[in-house]
Amino acid sequence: MPTIINPHPRQQPHDLKPGERFDPACIYIHDSGAVYCGRHVGTEATYTPQAWSCLGLGPTYIDGAITFACETCHSHGGR
């Protein structure tokens, strides 16, 4: 699991649990590798929350040389 980047437990990197809601201010990664912010994760994601992990607060998440960003907000190389 990545380094904790926010002191609020719901915004620390963690696997989602059934019934947990997506936070619009956080960025999430799916088991398949898809990355979306809480605003763009989609309604269908609520059927399989266990397949999503919160990377933390913010529009992007940097882990070493890899930058994760929402595929909708930053499509085609960013805005």
Write the layout of secondary structure elements.
Layout: E1 14-15, E2 26-30, E3 35-37, E4 52-57, E5 60-63, E6 66-69
Antiparallel strand pairs: 1-4, 2-3, 2-4, 5-6
Strand order of the largest sheet: 1-4-2-3
By DSSP, the count of extended strands is 6
Distance between the termini: 28 Å
The description of the largest β-sheet is: 4 strands, antiparallel
User: Would you list the SSEs in sequence order as H and E?
Assistant: EEEEEE
What is the radius of gyration?
12 Å
Q: What structural class do helix, strand and pairing data support?
A: mainly beta
Mean pLDDT rating:
77
Q: What proportion of the residues is helical, as a percent range?
A: under 10%
Number of helices: 0
What sort of overall outline do the alpha carbons produce when their principal axes are compared? Answer: globular
Give the total of domains. Answer: 1
Low-confidence stretches: 1-5
* Strand fraction: 25-35%
Offer a few descriptive terms.
79 residues, mainly beta, 4-stranded antiparallel β-sheet, two-stranded antiparallel sheet, globular, disordered N terminus
